[in-house]
Each structure stands twice: as C-alpha cells, then as structure tokens.
Queue: 3 jobs
Job 1
Amino acid sequence: MNAWVKKSVGLANGTGYLDKLSAIYPVGGAESPSRTSKEEEAELKELFRAKDKSKLLQALLELERFPYDEPYIGYFRADESAINRNPKTKKRIITTLHAMGIQKIIAGANKSKSESRKFGQSFRKWICSEWEGAVYTDETRFLRSKGVAFLDGSDKKLKEFATKHFGYRRKKGLDFVALAYGIPVIGEAKFISASGGTQDKSFREGIEFLKKTSGTTRYVAVLDGVIWNRKAKPYTNGRKNLYSSLDNLQPQHIALSALLLKQYLQSLKG
C-alpha cells in the first residue's frame, strides 16, 4: 500500500479524524425542513424526549434522509463505530439536532436529498490560515519564495499559472498551487461524503488527476471522507469496491488526507 494512503487510512480509522477535519471543512447549521410521515414521527418524538440523544442519532442514521445537510453522516453510516471515535463531531451533530427541535427534525428527515456541501472555498480558507504569511498573490514573490509557499487566486488563475510555469496541461482549474523547497506541487481537494453518483465521479477525477504526474511537478489528490474508511462498502451488488483502487496506487501517486498535507510538503525538503 502506498505510504500516504496507509497513513490516511490510519488517521480515518483512528480517534478524532472527523473532529480534526472539521477545522478544514466546517459545517454550518441545518437546512429548512419539509414534511415527514406520522409513522416516523412517534418514534422520533420518543427518542428526542429521552435524555440520551445518541439513540436519536442512531435512529436517524437508519433513515434515507438525515434531517439536515451533514456531510459527515455518510462516514458514520459506513462505519457506526466511528461515532464514538469522533466525540466532538458527535457532540456537534447532537447539539445541532437538539437546537432544531423535534418538529424540524421530523420534517427534515423526509426532505428530498440535496447535493452535498461544496467545500472548495473552505479548503482555500484553511490554506490561507494554516500557512499564514506564506500565501502569495504576487506570482514573482511566490516563485522566489523559500520553504513552503502557496499561490493565492481563482481556479482560472492557478490553472493558467501552472500551465505556464509547471507544465500543467488539463483544462480544469486547481485547488492549490504550491512550491515546497523549490519543488512544484499542484493539487485538487475533494471531500467524498458518501458513495454513488457525483461523489463517485469526484473520486475518479481525483485519481485520474494524480496519475498525470510528470517531470518535476508533483500532482496531489487531497481526498477526505468515507473513502478512507475500511468498513465503507460503496457497492453491495457484488461489484468491486471503488475505493480499493487507492490500495493499488504507485509510490509516486500521492493521494492523502488534508490532515497530512503539511507533513507531505515538509517531506519534500532535501
């Protein structure tokens, strides 16, 4: 197994993975609720009145629709044991449910599914805060930087810069462009909240991206979410687990959790 994949799996299946990840991908409040059936209502009301809200969370995980747009729920559904390994995330979710009240919980539980929260801007903000003082808007200053530095700008600006200076040839924008001790590093960041549909497409795009590595430029896929959970089963009809492709990556193909990005960039120091 690729070293960075192995480290990411270890993080995700250890204590506090989602708790730490929430500093990069923060989650806001609940969405406006809709309708629900009376059959669900009685059970959920009883659980809400109980002092132990953990049982309410367990019950809501079994429903098709969680009451609000919570991207970490897909991870808990894939591996319920992760709930107790991430006490801060569990507490935040339970606190949000309590603040919503039972009527909004019931209503939200029957709302039609919505597209998962997009975390692109959250990732950019984290880069700027985590590497404060080493994020440049000026291209010349960025190129002259020593140590680890990031170029700030839109997807388009980063793509154009990487195309001109780092040999990037794809049409898609980039989530980050960095220099680590003189080594160019470009990357995409994706949070995979659950399996299926557009989430699977995002995962495939990330894997396709990192395999474009050529020359001195390093292509990095910063991936997080249910993909690192060894108990995740994106397919139940006998098809191959999509995420198993991570285990077959070559050493030069870098896929890792955002929590390991700093460690990876530091490893490029000569």
Note: Residues 8 and 260 are 7 Å apart (CA to CA).
Job 2
Amino acid sequence: MGRRREGDGAQGTWAIVAGGGTAGHLNPGLAVARALVERGHDPATIHFVGAARGPEGTVVPSAGFSVDLLPGRGLQRRAALANVTAALDLVRALAGGIRIVRRHRPAVVVVLGGYASFACGVGAVLARVPIVLLEQNRLAGAVNRVLRRFASASAVSFEGTDLPRAVVTGNPLRPEIRAVAGHPDRRGARAELGLPDGRSVVAVFSGSLGSRRINEAVLGLVERWRDRADLAIRHVVGRRDFAEVVRQSPLPHSGGLVHQLVEYEDRMDLLLAAADVAVTRSGGSVFELMAAGVPAVLVPLPIASRDHQKANAEAVAALGGAVIVPDDELDADRLERELDALLRDRDRLASMAAAMRASARPDAADEVAAVVERAARTDRSPTPAAAATVDPPEEGGRG
C-alpha cells in the first residue's frame, strides 16, 4: 500500500487514523490499525493522515497502509517569528485535512494528537463523522482538549484523564513489545544484544534525539563504576549528541563495567527483555516498561506540555513500579544513589517488576479497536456544535 497524494480519489475508506509527527503519536495509531485488520477490516479501508515532517511518510506505507501528509508544524507556546510561518502552514493543513475527510467519507476518524489530527478532527466535525480520541498521557494534550467536546469516545491510558466519554484501554503497543509481555527471554535477548549473562543490566534511553541531562549523568556514573564486574549498561544516547558522548565516554577497565553506547535502539523489545531496571523519560514508553515488567528511574521532561510527563511518572510511581527524579536534580550522585538502592535490594526490584506487570494492558490495541468499532457503528455524528468554535491548539509538538 503506497502513499497517496492529497487530492487523489479514494473509495471505501472505513477509518481515517490522523496524527503523528513523532513515533510516540504514530506507533499507537499503527498498533490500532493492525488490530482493526486482525478484527477483519481490509487494510485498504484504513487510511492515515500525518505530518510531512514526521516519520509517517516512510513508516506507514511500509506497514501496509496508505497515507496523506500535511504541511507545517505546531504553534509554539511562546511568541516567535516562526509562528507566522507555522500559522500559515496550519491553515494550509487545516484546509487539506477537511478536503481529505470529505473525499474519503470514513465511518470514523481516530485522532492520535499533533496538528495533522486537528485538521482531520475539524474535517470530521464538519462532515458529521464520529471522532475517537486516543490519549497516551495522564493529562490530555492540546488537540484532544480542543476536540473533546465533539468526541464520540476517548480511549485513554490512565484513570482520571481529563477527556469525556473515556474508556481506560491503556496505550496501544507495537506487536514486538506485546510479545515481550509475560515471558521475556532474558538470556536470549542479552545474547542478541551482546550483553553478558550473569550481570545486572541497566537500560538507558530517552527518545530518538536523546537527553543531554540523562546522558551527562550516565557518563558520570560510568566513570565511577568502571571497575564493577557485576553490571552492564546499554546506553541509547540518541542521534543529536551521539558523537560527543562517544568522545567523552570513559574507557572501560578490563573485566569491569560493560558500557554499550548505541545511537538508536531499533530492537527495543530485546532491550526491555534484557533489562533489570531502566532510566528514561516518562512519555508513552512507560507502557512498554509495564508490559515488560521493567522497574524504572523516571526523569520527566520538564518542558512537556502541561507537565504531562510528571503526571505520567507520578501515576506509575503510585502503582509501585518506579521512582521519580526531577530533571533538575539528576546528576551522577543522584543516579548512583537511586540505582544502587534498587540493585542492592533484589526483593524490592522484584516487587516493582511485579507491580509493572500487574498494571500492564498488553491488549490495549484491541481494546481501542473495539472502541473505534462501537463509535463507527452507533454514532454517525459528533456532538452538535458550531464548527466555527473550534480553535486551533496553541501548544506545539504534541496533541
């Protein structure tokens, strides 16, 4: 199934899955689309609309679905000259999203977040097509908050998320992550990643670009732990600072700490299966940690909209599966204290792992697919309201 240009004709579209711009938005949408296919829907009847600047232009066609790409980027929260261009692109994207919904006439539109989903959400309101919001965070993003009055249903990841007609489904997971749930092959995963057996493994990751704060703390910790023969750290640095981190990384001592530096982890399922504990941000990845039963030191991104990563982290910590370190408190000293406390107390680590597994919802994609089917079958029109009252979101970067 290839990419369709906006303006091409289309017949028989049952669902539009709208949004993306980041893997965090896109991957749950792909998981839901695959679940719909497993429930009997033809892949040709599921159409994606995403951001031209995001990964969906290549990822979606390779997954077997068609996609339209809209221009532009989200508006920033602070005044900036770039917002002038962004606003013009948003208008173009909005017009494109409305045309796409009118052309496809789907039975339902699934909103993932991001400006592309706002455009198609408005198109769905105007065309009286049911909308299902998919929210991965404890606090709803800008696009979902704008569109919530029109939603037929909201598939949410946490209890208490501020969206109407909410069904707690969990966050849809990629098939390879679902496969890790319950019975991870730790020894096999470590062998495939080149990690030694018989050591505790710390997984460090923080998105495709990475986190300077986390990387710097880990490098300081590696310097202190160079002689430790009981540990291995697989450190996913991110693309932005990989070369600099490699240059700064301390040389290992023979027989001491194993420190693997990786620019990007394309086998996250293996890393989660191999890990005893993780150090990471607290976006949608917390659900992958739950599925794999991996305790975590969570470092919420402080600039996330509505401080939603802090809310996510607090929810996971309340379940007993994680400890929280604020971003401005993270350094080698603090990271050493937190990890030592966990790694020296195997009973506590096992209890946290059990809490993560107990909180997991590995079948979230199928649950969301069921919500989508019910919305398409029972509600052909959004909540009545004047379309002119739909205002564009003010926050950039996520929905």
Note: Residues 177-359 form a domain with the Rossmann fold fold (CATH 3.40.50.2000).
Job 3
Amino acid sequence: MLPASLYFPVYLLIVTFLTFYATQMYNQRILSDLNRTKTSKQIYALLVCTFIIFFIGMRPVSGKYFLDMANYNTNYEVLFGERFWFDREAENFFFDNWFAWMASEKVDITYVFLIFAAIYFSLMFVACRKLFPKDTFLAFMVYLAAFSTFSYGTNGMKAGMAASTFLVALAYYDKLWISIPLALFTMGQHHSMALVIASYFLVLVVKNPKYYFGGWVVCVIMAALHISFFQFLFAGFADERGSEYLLGGLHSGFRLDFIIYSAVPVAIGYLMIFEYGLLKSRTYNIILNLYLTTNSFWMLCMYSNFTNRIAYLSWFLYPIVLLYPFVNIIWHNHQIRYLKYAVYGHLAFTLFMMLIYY
C-alpha cells in the first residue's frame, strides 16, 4: 500500500498518461471512423475504472491527506457493532441508514471505503458509456482529470456518490421512469442534491437555452457586485446544514479563478448553439442548461465559506458538458484539433491548480 502522501501525485501521473494515450487515438482520423474501436474503448475504460476503484478504495485512512475520511472513520467506530435502528429523520436518509447498518454488521472500514469508491467510479463509468458510447475511454479519462474528481472520491464521498448516481439519471433522461426515481434517490444520498434535482425538473420543462445563458450572465454580474441577498434568501429555505454552508462565512472573496474555470463550457456552449446551430441536440441542450442553472446558483452564493462545495453541484457536470459537443456532434472540419485543445486544456487546468496554485 502506498503512503497516503503519494496517492494524489500517483493519481495525477496515471490520469495524465492515460489522457494523452486516449487522445492520441484521434490522430489523423475522422470521428466517424472511430466506430470500429467502440468496444475496445469501452473495455479500456472498464479496466481503468476497475483499477481506480481498488487504488482509491484501498487507500489508508488519513485525515491529513483525505480530510473527511478521518471523520467517516471516527463516526464508523462509534457505530461499529451497535444495534441498528432505522432513522426516519436522518439528514441523508439512505446513506446515513446504510452507513449505520454496515457498522452494525461489523463490516471492516476498509471494505466500506472500497464500496464507496466502487459506487463513485462505476456509476461514473456507466454514465460515460451511455452518453459517449463511441468515446467511452476518452470521456472517462476526461472525467478522472476533472478538478474535483479525486477530491470527491476521497473527501466529500457522500456528495461524490450522489453526483455519480445523478449522472446516470441524467444519461437516461429519455427514459423518465428510470431517470426520475434515480434522481430523487440522490437526495437521500446527500441532501444538497435537492438543488440539482429542482434544476433538472426545470430544464426538462423550460428548454430554450437563451433564458439560461441570460440568467448566468446576470448572476456573474451580481457576484461581481457582491450582492448577497440571494445567499440569505436561500439560507432561509435551507435546512440547518444548508444554512451553515451558506452563512458559515460571508467573508470569502470573489473567486475569479472559479468563474474563469466555470465559464469555459459556457463559452463553448454559446458557440455550439448560436454559431454552429446545435440546438437540435436534445441531450446537449439538457446537459448545458442544467450546468448553467446550477452554476448560476453557485455564483449567487459565491461568498459562502463553503463555496467549493456549492460549486461542485455544477462542476460534477463539467467534464460531460465540456466534452459532449466535440465527440458526439460533427460540426467542423477541424473538430479533432479543437477536441485536443479542450482535453489538454482541461487537464492542464487541474495540474496547474493542484500542483502550482494550491
């Protein structure tokens, strides 16, 4: 087993190498030719997923390097061997009761974290396979290279598992009898998903992207002007934990770095829809509108002390909304070149933020 201090550097090294490898498959080839390697790319993605599950899931318990992991471990020790009783008032209805049940059954904590990793990464793989059937390997690597992926696989694990579950719900938006129950289930995994679920219902009904782009721009302006009215308003409707997130610290600064990061798929989306006429893509329309809605909410609450956790409610969609137009829709003769710019830029941002900025 690696020392805890080496897990993140090794993870970045593996992801960087495999991202370059996945992208090189597109050298001097047109996208329609890639159908021939559809099955092999799904197998590559599955193999990487399996390896990452065991790599992350079997990591040592460390509060220094994995933060909340130590809190999960402490809470588990308190519940370990205790008689299980179903708590109908649990904050995270499904997760909290499931966690307590595993502790009552004396499941070793190592296997608990392995199960967490399995849920987080395997559902991520399922969503990538459904949304990118011809490009599953690249899509999965782009997701692993995202700014928040490692953190929510080792630190905010409840939120990470809920987000991956929602990705599957989103991937099956055309089968609402699957999508809606899965989406609602995520709120029992982590209470913060209520915002994402509400946004999802909105974008299923209101489809015109002009409204969402306009709303996003307005929210950027309000964030720049430090208007915190909505932060207090949302706190009034939230539960105790939600209010703590929103009002726990109103002195956080204007996050220009986060806005620039968030704006990249917005700018690409604007070009895709209004310059290249991709409004006909229902899937992309839903994903982009959902991202714009949840990211707008974050900007209204930017000055919260837990701004990164609120931002994750849109950022977990980031790899999907970034990659989708480059591989699923033919729109330009130089698409492969721009695909590489997007993938490498996405990876470079993560490496810069993690190795230099922080």
Note: The chain has two domains: 1-191, 192-327.
